[in-house]
Hints:
Keywords: Membrane, Transmembrane, Transmembrane helix
Strand content: under 5%
Protein name: ECF transporter S component
Oligomer: single chain
Order of helices and strands: HEEHHHHH
Transmembrane segments: 12-30, 42-66, 100-126, 138-156
CATH architecture: Orthogonal Bundle
Shape: globular
Number of strands: 2
Organism: Peptoniphilus lacrimalis 315-B
CATH topology: Arp2/3 complex 21 kDa subunit ARPC3
CATH class: Mainly Alpha
Amino acid sequence: MKNISTKKLTIIAMFIALTTVATMAIQIPIPATKGYVNVGDTIVIACALLMGRTAGGIVGGIGSALADLISGYGYYAPITLVVKGLEGYIAGLLKEKTSLSFIICGLAGGIVMAIGYLLAEGLILYNFPTAIASFMPNLLQGIGGAVLADIVYPILKKAIFNQLDFN
């Protein structure tokens, strides 16, 4: 993202805001970890597919960590910054470097997210039995995010990028 244009920076900021709102709009608690399942991954993965790995990583990390801070999950924010940043980065990287379908790229990002939280919760926040209890909800969140991103991708591409003559 060398020499980033004002237009690209503005779109990245918009995706950060959308990620924060989507993450906060629907929060299903995970009692074992006191965390939550959300739909923010949809925006993270869609951004990564539309704008690439760097934007996906920035949007995933910052947008999701902001939602944690605003929602009262500040202790998760540093982990979320890294884990969701990796989710967006991996999805965007695979889209840029391979001919894999969008859904496969998104699924890879979602799997990285679920494994990232498993490791962080098991090694840093809690213990592995507790982390394992949240693994399946996180994995389902990642899968759902990939499927929904595949659906909203053409809509976002047409609405945002084609209308703004984005290159």
